[in-house]
Hints:
D-Amino Acid Oxidase, Chain A, domain 2; 6-stranded mixed sheet; alpha/beta
Amino acid sequence: MKTYDALVIGGGIAGVSLGYELAADRTVGLLEMESTLAFHTTGRSAATFTESSGGPVMRALTTASRAFLEDPPQVFESKPLSPLPLLVLGPQGAADAVRALHREASVLLPEVRLVEPDEAQQICPVLRPGYVELAMFEPGGMGVDVHCVHQGYTRGLRQRGGEIYTSASVATIERRGGVWRVTDAGGETYQAPVVVDAAGAWCDAVANLARATPVGIQPMRRTIFMLPSPRERITGGLPFIGDIGATFYVKPEGEQFLCSPSEETLQPPSDVRPDELEIARAIDAINTATILNARHVRSSWAGLRSIVPDRLPVVGFDPMAEGFFWFAGQGGYGIQTGPAMARIGAGLVRGLPIPEDVAALGLAADSVSPTRAGLSVAAAH
């Protein structure tokens, strides 16, 4: 029997970041079902940091995470952010949608600005002339070294005494005498008064084992593929671009472009594969918006974005299962919101309020609570 103050289930960015924060003052064990950490969603991320993306809650969490990622603890070994401006494209007829996004994003990010077609063309010379009616430019967008972030948190968790177990798929969870007892598929047993459910697409499956209240996790497939850069062009200096309708995005990546159809297709929790039809659709959209004239794909993969019905994270203790703590529903924003999410989660486990700097951005514990209005009702359906 291995005994801890807290057991964290899930070894992606959610699990290791919260484990790191908790390990500052308590013993932590982390269980990962795969043989390696970050095998599913985290390891397949598009690796961007854009403060204008997502709704108000995600924007606040991203902004609150920036300082940590710009200057992480020494255990991270290097700084994970690098400049990668964002250009959101509004094709003909979509200018009003771009203006609406700008109004929302500029509340926390005053440097975002609207740009007319000529300036958009200067910022991103590979745009097809006449495609853009209006665009929004986020000059402070960043690329993220996902491996650096995940490994930094993992290294920090271990340095703080945390213990990590891989190939430890959870088989049973039961509460006895105020303590959770967890058995993995190999027969090893662990116990702690607090269990943290950071299992991504498998969060509701873990909750069912513990007889906690499912929150309605919807694992959504997102396909990613790589396009070669045209021989006469280079990717250096180009922004990360995506259309306002979320039908594609294109990120310069070395000598290639990392692209996605930005689809959200409901899937069972699994090792998902890319959708060839979605790739073909995205290539058509990219060729309409740019002069890349993409013909073939070099490689492709897919990951799962874990979303609940109201598209907000779920952070807090379950209302029916004592000591069962939700840390779920990052919805594809887990890397860029990770530092703030981990601080919030660790504070709530300790019974503390939302950190002051996060609260100052307008985020309250109620907005991410598993007991918030409508979440349980939506989950039941």
